[in-house]
Amino acid sequence: MLFKIAIKNLIGARLRTFLNVFVTSISFFVILFISGMYDGMRQYAKQTTIDTEIAGGSYWHPNYDPLDPMSFEESHSPIPDNVKNLIDSKEAFPILVSQASIYPNGRMMPVIMKGISPEQSIINMEGNNTDKVNPTKMLANQDEIEIPVLIGSGMAEKAQLKEGDTFTIRWLDSEKTYDAMEGTVIHIMNTENFKLDIGTIWIPIKTAQSMLEIEDEATYVTYNKNIEQLKNSGDWLHRDVNYLISDIEAAIEADKPGNQILFMILLSLTAMGIFNAQVLSIFRRGREIGTLMALGMTRSRVVGLFTLEGALNSFLATAMTVIVFGPILWYFGEKGIPLPMNYSEMGLMIAKRLIPVYSVGLILTTTILIAIIVLLVSYLPSRKISKMKPTDALRGKITA
Q1: What long-range pairs does 133-140 form, CB within 8 A, spacing at least 24?
Q2: How far apart are CA 376 and CA 123, in angstroms?
Q3: Scanning 31, 185, 372, 384, which has the fewest C-beta atoms within 10 Å of its C-beta?
Q4: Rounded to 5 degrees, what are φ and ψ at 119?
């Protein structure tokens, strides 16, 4: 009986019901859309880092600290035997890290110079979603060039370099002697991992070892996915994927409060709209309430009627979100959202075309939260009914 009356009331309200449902549906859509964008950014940053940089994990020289360039001089040594076996089986590759200065167009720029194996195929610094050749392979078979150099598009723009340009590279070798040679840009890669791009030049590892006079030494070794951790890696430290993406996780945690505040604002706006509609409904429908109470409907059932109407509003809003806004969410989830600028210059790993991710957990959590809030704000104003006298309601006089 209550259900039929609630349906009749909602149909009779027409515009008011539509506006309540539409506002709630918009809030539902915006919450899903923005939360999906955040989740998409998180997933993209993690996956891009794994695909372009860390693969299955790494073994580090014990003195290596990527955030402390002063440690680079002492953070290289011969590779432990067990780790070297992975390299020989092509399940890992070494990287040698050092400081250097480059002099493009008469200017001096400090850079991190990284030597990498041109033949490696474990990571693709331009991402695994590209059909282009792995950029490190461009460093192979460049015997006629003194120092072949691979750089990112951001670095190329900052240094005002293009393919074929030459510049001087100056470094400090293991004997504490400065030396300089000419480097040539053989390829400019388009990577969305700014850590491989800004302030970094890549050269063949054999060339880097010869320049620094440290044959067969490396700073760290990156190994392939699905490779178990070695039981003995000498004095080198094992760094798994969770450790290597901890900076991304920290950035995500730092961003959570802002996301939660926005989430609460949207929920509050939804709750406020339903609450105001229910309060207005009680005052406008005083005679109806009085008639129902006079005919024998208990106060609890009248309260239940208004609460049920709020629940139906929530259900209709969910249905409208699926029917009206569902195709929009699906379209952006498939095609992505083009962003107006390159955020890598700001130190953010965000795709140029961001694809939102709508997880089952996000959809269920949002649906349940909105349903609970709508039920709550429908129930609270209807409690006033329990204090009403039927005679006052029939006269249209509502007292608390």
Answers
A1: 135/187, 135/189, 135/191, 136/202, 138/186, 138/187, 139/186, 139/187, 139/202, 139/203, 139/204, 140/204
A2: 52
A3: 372
A4: -85, -10
Question: Tokens 């991190």 map to which residue?
Answer: 112
The most confident of 211-215, 247-251, 288-292, by mean pLDDT: 211-215
Dihedral sign computed on CA atoms, order 285, 291, 292, 298? positive
Q: What confidence category does residue 42 fall into, taking pLDDT thresholds of 50, 70 and 90? A: confident
* b (16+ CB within 10 A) / e for 89-117: eebbbbbbbbebbbbbeeeeeebbbbbbb
Averaging pLDDT over each range in 132-141, 161-170, 242-251, 349-358, which range is the top one? Answer: 161-170
Q: What are the tens digits of pLDDT across the range 322-333?
A: 898 889 888 888
Cα separation, 223 vs 227, whole angstroms: 7
43: region left, alpha or beta (phi > 0 left; psi from -120 to 50 alpha): alpha
- Residue 235 contacts by C-beta under 8 Å, 6 or more apart in sequence? 62, 80
Contact 393, 287 (CB under 8 A): yes
Q: Would you say 79 and 94 are in contact if contact means Cβ atoms under 8 Å apart?
A: yes
For residue range 139-193, what is the model confidence (pLDDT) as tens digits?
988 888 899 999 998 899 889 999 999 999 999 988 888 999 999 999 999 888 8
Please state the pTM of the whole predicted model: 0.73
Can you say whether the dihedral through the CA atoms of 305, 311, 316, 319 is positive or negative?
negative
